[in-house]
Amino acid sequence: MKNIVILISGGGSNMAAIVRQARDARWHARYGAQVVAVISNRAQAAGLLLARQQGLTTAVVDHRGFDTREDFDAALAQAIDRHDAPGQPALVVLAGFMRILTPAFVARYAGRLLNIHPSLLPAFPGLHTHQRALDAGCRFAGATVHQVTGELDHGPILAQAVVPVIPGDTADTLAQRVLTQEHRIYPAAIAAWLAQQPG
Ligand code: GAR
After folding, report:
1. What domains sit in the chain, N to C, each tagged with a CATH number?
2. Triad 42, 33, 160: Cα angle to 5°
3. Which of 125, 135, 137, 197 has a CA 20 to 30 Å removed from the CA of 66?
4. 4-27 as b/e: b if 16+ CB within 10 A
């Protein structure tokens, strides 16, 4: 059984989409994986409530309680690693997790750390992606699922969704249209990743 730990900071709609898929009996039988925990750096993250309503184990590692990024990441790693299955390190899924991770953290989870970013990478890494796409006059926007590497919002691309920019779009309307597609591609990309794992 492969365990999946999801990290969130906010609403948790991607997390909910992944949990929904992972609980489908056919998906479960096919990929032998389950979401075992949801961890947030913010106690107020609405996604935590959603996760608890789903009966999932949740934890909070509040970044404000640590002096350095290194200390926070070490505590986060401890919270994650207690969900490893015997002999099977967990897949770590960043789903709206709004923290920059240290190189040591990224190295520890190399090859089993996935992220979703609300732009068509390599365009618009970082924040405010939808406003920046509108300001640049883009006709299309979208989202990218990728493996996390040492460079922020880079790393091998696993899936992308493209959505049209519609006249009159605001950052909010565009974000909503992109988010709907995120809910489709993230579970699918995780399934594809799991299918490639040995054993
Ligand atoms: C999503 O749009 C996700 O792509 C984005 O935050 C939102 C989280 O929504 N992630 C980032 O910006 C990471 N750099 P959710 O909490 O409802 O899944």
Report:
1. 2-195 (3.40.50.170)
2. 70
3. 125
4. bbbbbbbebbbbbbbbebbeeeeb
Q: Which atom of ligand 1 is nearest to the CA of 182?
A: 4
- Amino acid, single-letter form, for residue 75: A
Q: What is the pLDDT of residues 145-199, one digit of tens each?
A: 999 999 999 999 999 999 999 999 999 999 999 999 999 999 999 999 999 998 6
* Ligand 1 centroid – CA 93 distance (Å): 12
The values of phi and psi at residue 66, to 5°, are -125, 145
Q: CB–CB of 193/32 below 8 Å?
A: no
For 68, the token pair is 């350095």
pLDDT score of 131: 98
Measured between alpha carbons, how far is 1 from 16 in angstroms, rounded to an integer?
Answer: 20
Helical packing angle, 13-22 and 46-53, nearest 10°: 20
Pocket test for ligand 1, best of 8, 116, 128 (most atoms within 8 A of CB): 116
Which residues pair with residue 174 across a beta bridge?
none
pLDDT for position 28? 86
Query: What DSSP element (H or E) covers 48?
Result: helix 46-53
pLDDT tens for 24-45 read 999 989 999 999 999 999 999 9
Work out which ligand 1 atom sits closest to the CA atom of 179.
2
> What DSSP character marks residue 114?
E
- In this prediction, residues 77-105 reach a mean pLDDT of 96
